[in-house]
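Q: My labmate handed me this sequence with no annotations at all. I'd like to see what the chain might look like in three dimensions before we decide whether it's worth expressing. Could you predict it?
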Amino acid sequence: MQPSIAESCREERAREVVHSTARPGSSRCLRHERVAAVTTVPVWSLSPPAGKLLDRLLVCYIDRMPRTVNPRAYGLRREAFLDVAQRLIQTKGYEAMSIQDVLDALQTSRGALYHYFDSKQGLLEGVVERFVDDALGSLAPVLHDACLPAPRKLELAFSGLARWKAGQKDLVLALIPIWQSDANAIVREKVRRLAVSRFVPLLAGIIRQGIDEGVFTASSAEGTAMAINALLQGMQDWALSAFVERQQGLSSFEEVRRIAASLTESLERVLGAELGSLTLMDEPTLRFWYG
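A: Here is what I predict for the chain of 291 residues:
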């Protein structure tokens, strides 16, 4: 026995087939102001009798094609939301920024935004993730240079990240209070995990090269990379606190220089490198942020 129209519609989420001027296969829904005589059209039929409409206000073709997403268009639109969010974070501050500010800047709807980001925090995570990815992406020429020895490659990687942050100083400064706020602990933890997934494999590659060259004595490239990443995260927390203290006149540049040198020495010991062989934070970089 054939299923009834009501049963078929429930099974197919009420997508009844109707006769109209639209081409079969279209995903376009047709809203009818006048309802013609009701007909019993099987939901699997693609050719209902001419002039017959189902007694529904909103009806669609059941044979519509799945909606496809243009990856390039999707990426460009997502980047537009991130560009606006980053600009507002830098100019207004994250706490003062609202979702409506982003929508007004792009003259779009809340629904359009939620297609890409589920919340204001989601926007922040997107901005930070893009910052991290772009920063690490800038290291590609150094990481792929087969002529560079591992110690020099490590120094250039650190100096390259320092230059990248200097070029994004407005964003870095805007992110400092966000990073230090307990309200954004979830975002902070997500960024830490992101660093592990992105940075540790790159660092492990340099360490493995150094072990092969005999300049690092660490026994495991991956394990050492994890240990150094934890050290660097602690270093970053110190660097942010030291920056704020320097702005408030609570610490001296000499103290900053001394702690930076001790952190570099700790990293050398973890690597099993010769003490004093690495320069990871040079004088110009320290002066730029703490001078």
